[in-house]
Amino acid sequence: MSISILNGLAAATFDDPAKVLEEIQTRPFKYVVNEEKQTIQGFHIENPQLFWTIESAVHSSKVGSQLKQILWIPIE
Hints:
- With 76 residues, the chain is mainly α.
- It has two domains: 25 residues, no CATH class; 46 residues, no CATH class.
- Helix content is 53%, strand content 8%.
- It has a three-stranded antiparallel β-sheet, with no helix packed on it.
- The longest helix has 13 residues.
- The chain is elongated.
- It starts with a helix and ends in a 6-residue tail after the last helix.
């Protein structure tokens, strides 16, 4: 990304270019699943069938890789 595009994004969002850059930078991701508690990224899914449907979708599809990016948890 060029500086002029970054500045354009910052101007369009009325934000500081440094803050915009920080927001669009790739963040480390850790996908967290607890099978015993039936949680994905800390969200409890009560229905076991739904839990396993979502879990298998995340592992087996391109949508799953996009979902992982959306539901990211920063690695500390």
